[in-house]
Amino acid sequence: MHMKDCTRLDELGVFGFGRAEPVIYAALVTEDPLLLIGASGTGKTYLLNSLSETLGLEHRHYNASLISFDDLVGFPYPDQENGGVRFLETPATVWGAESVLIDEISRCKPEHQNRLFSLVHERRVQGIALPRLRYRWAAMNPCSGDQSGVEDYAGSEPLDPALADRFALFVQAQDWSALGEAERLKIADPGGEGRIAADGGTLRDHVEAWRTAFQQKSASCPESIIGYATTAVTALNGAGIRISPRRARLLTRSLLAATIVAGRAEESLFRAVLEASLPHQTWGAAPNAEAVAAAHRLAWDAIAPGRQRWLNLFVAERALPRKLAILLDAGDSPDAGSQAVSELLAAETRERAAAFAFAAYPAAVLGRLPIGAESVNDLGKIAIPVLSVDGEMSWQEPHSQNGTRHPDADRFARVLAGLDEGSGRKARARQFFDWCLVERLSTPDPVALEDEIEGCVALLKERGLA
Amino acid sequence: MNGLAFPGTAKRRPLSANMGGPMSRTRKERVSSTLLGRDGGPIRCPRVIRLGLDFGGKAPVETLGRILAEEGYGSREDLREDFPMPERRLVCRPLPEGAERLPVAIGARAEVLRQALMLGLCTAQYFDPLRPVLWTEASLARGLELFDPAGFYA
């Protein structure tokens, strides 16, 4: 039972979301929070209310810009039987709801955002669990300052990134200019207005079947999906597009659900889910499209069988010790290992390439890395000048001062001061920093780089390779 | 450009017209440190051997080929039988500038051949006893110090 068999959204009277259908269904399957973003009049609210109708859910629709907290929880009154407080329920209160739509979420006051936070993230209000609540949906206009649209929504404030990070998927509602001719005609036709979205339970049955499959497969999620998510998140973070560890898991869940819905793991589906998993547009910082495309390409190649997979993982990984671990774990031949090392030495900054070579070259000489002779030589060309430094450092001293020290020498000295006197770690760090001084490399974060060198050394020792 | 001396500043460096703010000075300091060749301290990468032949302007490959034949060796690989070598790979570093080399013309033949054998097993970066012995103009002309890298990971 796959998406192609399923009732399409336009059969429910919802038009313009055809391309986002797999992503929307994935959110129904995972029951993770879903946020729709789009210009006014693009059918965001209509879609979500129609879905609740179709699925036969006990639904609540709140307008976050107008809502008061009492609307959500009802009126408190003393509970004379048990002590404490109870809430007087109304048809609008959230108790008993199975789906909740928080409309205009970007237009509410910060204190309301904080209350909605626990509703979205924990399915709780005032610390009280909402056990029947399955779906948490929200909608918003593009936030003010986002220049990507024609209109500037002055009242739509950037979402708090912590709140945005609780949503698993973000669907862009298409504006008129992006719609196809058939969709335009259907939307413009007033014939279906007011129609109840009912399909005889078909979509509900599909969602339940998909959800059962999802729960079964979640226990042993396919390695390829985890590999894709891991590589993509690593690459995005490496490109300066921050993705939280929580989102890595949300992405895996969404990918798994989407493949169950679609019945296959195809590239366009993975890309669509990845793009819909980026929260940045909710605070007006849409990520660089090329960087996202590159991360997808890297991740997709990474789940291809064979050598390319681990090489892509290696390239995507930022941390030097983890790169080394991938090389040690997955190096299937000296040729592939050499290719990986060449990639690293070419792509990294000079000081990071030197840090890796410095830590790995002695082990490579001893034949403990899965790389060829050429790569041992390449590492040696970089590492030997670090292992033995003999040169001159120079700096500018203001006319009014005497006896100054090289400013980087002071920075490095502070790092060294935190290391155990007489330890191998300190000796290595001092040697590396001496090389940086002579080579005039002002390492931006010497603490982090020294830590990476020692991470590599520790890994080699732990594996018994040093 | 004439220097201008202001009252009360006779001992200060004179300011020159258009020189702007006080000039900075470039300071330099020598930095010399190594983790190779140490027998003490937390990191011990002792030097194992020094290699360096002085061919006195003669062609290295041809000179060694002649010596090899004169000493009765069929090929350079045969040298392995008479000259035991370190069994594991070692780090190579270029000999310091001006370091003494063994004159091939007057040096003991056995020592010349031993060094030539080891140089033939070195790249500029490492010594590998399992490589084939390669004698090239470059490999024989190198001056190298060989260090045991195992202590680096202390």
Describe the protein.
The complex is a heterodimer of chains A (466) and B (154). The longest helix of chain A has 18 residues. Chain A has 19 helices and 10 strands. By secondary structure, chain A is α/β, with parallel strands linked by helices. In chain A, 50% of the residues lie in helices and 10% in strands. Chain A starts with 20 loop residues before the first helix and ends with a helix. Chain B is elongated and about 80 Å long. Chain B has a 5-stranded mixed beta sheet with strand order 6-4-8-5-7, covered by helices on one side. In chain B, strands 1-2 form a two-stranded antiparallel sheet. The N and C termini of chain B lie far apart (60 Å). The longest helix of chain B is centred in the middle third of the chain and has 11 residues. Chain B is α+β, with helices and mostly antiparallel strands and 154 residues long. Chain B is 20% helix and 23% strand. Chain B is built from 4 helices and 8 strands.
Rg of Cα set of chain A? 28 Å
Shape of chain B: elongated
What's the rounded overall pLDDT mean of chain A? 88
Assess the beta-strand content of chain B as a share of residues.
15-25%
Shape of chain A: elongated
Biggest beta sheet attributes of chain A? 5 strands, parallel
Helical amount of chain B: 10-25%
Rounded average pLDDT of chain B = 88
Low-confidence region ranges of chain A: none
> What is the helix fraction of residues of chain A, given as a range?
40-55%
The helix/strand class of chain A is alpha/beta
Could you state the order of secondary-structure elements of chain A as H and E? HEHEHEEEHEEEHEHHHHHHHHHHHEHHH
